[in-house]
Amino acid sequence: MKILMTGGAGFIGSHIVEALLERGHTVDVVDNLSTGSVDNIPEGAEFYHCAFDDSKVKRLLKKKYDIINHHAAQIDLRKSVTNPATDLKNDVAASVTLFKWAVESGVQYIIFASSGGAIYGEQSGSAEPADENHPINPASPYGLNKWIIERYLNYFHIQYGIRYCALRYANVYGPRQNPLSEAGVIAIFTNRMLRKEETIINGSGEQTRDFVYISDVVDSNLSAIKLRYHGEINIGTGKETSVNTIFTMLKEMTKSTTNEKHGAPKEGEQFRSVLSCEKAKNELHWSPEVSLTEGLKKTVEFEINKL
Fold first, then answer.
1. CB-CB contact of 48 with 57 (8 Å)
2. Secondary structure class of 166 (helix, strand, coil)
3. 169 contacts 236 by C-beta, under 8 angstroms
């Protein structure tokens, strides 16, 4: 198949591109490199350096892709809070433009990288992991934009028949995650501990997240493509871990001597987030395979080899 990958120079996107190429697909990558790196793009993928709503992409779509895998996005929650109008323009409006071009060019299927934790918002009122029927209550413009983009995908499906899968990710981690951005606590902690730098925990550290390893996320994309799964679906582990626990585990794995230090909490950050993945198991035939301990070890090894 011919697949257009937006954000293919980024953390998640580049791993998906690798897997698609290994399976014999033709993959073109569109990325403006605002957070991604050319070094992440696997050999065999054609790279186009531009934003995904650039007119170059409209011309590119004349190549008649079977699938668009849409992973390009602004990933910094703080930026979405500080500049919500910019976030709306660069993520929502730009995505709608891309979807319109997709329909016009005959694309049959779109995968969208959504966010379960950010869309559902605060989960402190329930002890159970959030399933796909959990109330939508984003605590940040970042989460709100993900939800709006999902609704636009549904509109384009109703209006034009194009199928889509919105993969509602938990907190994805693993090799190639940018440790210099504000997103990705595991990458940030690992990088700073290995470099013997001060490692600050935002807030109390008792806030919890559902951490899912990158290879499992890649597998969810492959399953969606194979089945042409249509709809919204959670991709996580169903297990929540506190930031303090992550700090302790990484401190031991990196043999760091840094002391636990707490700073101010992030504005717009929720306290608890964990996703139910029963729907993914039953309908996408997908389950996470990599444990948190195993995934953290692989991430630390990757960062050590970069030093």
1. yes
2. strand
3. yes
Same domain, residue pair 188 and 299: yes
What residues are labeled active site?
142
pLDDT band at 122 (very low <50, low <70, confident <90, very high): confident
38 and 156, same domain (yes or no): yes
Residue 302 to residues 15, 25, 186, 270, 306, Cα–Cα distance (Å): 14, 27, 12, 29, 7
Cα gap 27→9, rounded to integer Å: 12
Confidence of residue 117 (pLDDT cuts 50, 70, 90): confident
Residue 182 confidence (pLDDT) = 63
N- to C-terminal Cα separation, the chain: 38
Give the residue, 19 or 79, on which the prediction is more confident: 19
Q: What domain count does the chain have?
A: 2
User: Which tens digits make up the pLDDT trace of 12-30?
Assistant: 999 999 999 999 999 999 9
| CA–CA separation, 32 and 9 (whole Å) | 9
- The CATH number that applies at residue 111 is 3.40.50.720
Return the axis-axis angle of helices 94-105 and 141-160, rounded to nearest 10°: 20
Please indicate, yes or no, whether residues 23 and 43 belong to a single structural domain of this protein. yes
What is the model's pLDDT at position 123? Answer: 81
Q: Tell me the whole-structure pTM to 2 decimals.
A: 0.95
- Say if residues 151 and 162 touch (Cβ distance below 8 Å): no
217 in the same domain as 112: yes
Residue 244: give the domain boundaries. 175-208+240-274+292-306
Q: Is 90 exceeded by the pLDDT of residue 80?
A: no
